[in-house]
Design goal:
Length: 158
């Protein structure tokens, strides 16, 4: 059995892909205020939340447990509305040698949109399970952020 893998989830959203991409490229630090699944996020190293060399420290819930990790931005593709994050440290290093998150805001046919999260990972051993709890986590976060984006848009239209 391979220790490496890739899993993903794609959820239809009401917010426009541009709004989603803007949120994750310019307002990532606000996610902790929008969803109860994220307990805290703080800038660990660097001066800018959205710079590739900055390190963020996250505390969040996976599989009913509070976990922590560090995160950096590996790359940002504005044209494809895609961001690649690297997670490490904390609870990640206990289970995974490699843990890459890929965020994509996708425009669908007919003007609808979706958000896709993919996890590329390498487990430290065969006893460690694939990180399926992260897919559930992303499903909750996507729904919470989508509701927030819609509320923000409605308030702006008043």
């Amino acid at each position: 059995m391979s220790l490496s893998g890739k899993i993903s989830t794609e959820i239809p959203v009401q917010g426009a892909p541009e709004k989603w991409f803007h949120t994750y490229t310019n307002q990532l630090h606000h996610i902790q205020n929008v969803t109860h699944k994220v307990h805290a996020a703080k800038l660990h190293e660097g001066d800018d939340w959205h710079a590739n060399d900055s390190v963020k420290h996250w505390t969040y819930i996976i599989d009913g447990k509070t976990v922590t990790c560090h995160e950096t931005i590996e790359s940002v593709d504005e044209q494809n509305k895609r961001i690649v994050f690297k997670l490490y440290g904390g609870d990640i290093d206990d289970k995974y040698k490699v843990f890459i998150l890929i965020f994509e805001a996708i425009e669908k046919d007919g003007g609808s949109a979706a958000v896709k999260w993919s996890v590329e990972y390498e487990r430290v051993s065969e006893e460690v399970h694939a990180p399926y709890g992260y897919l559930e986590f992303f499903d909750h976060v996507i729904r919470d952020v989508d509701a927030h984006l819609l509320e923000t848009q409605e308030n702006a239209n008043k």
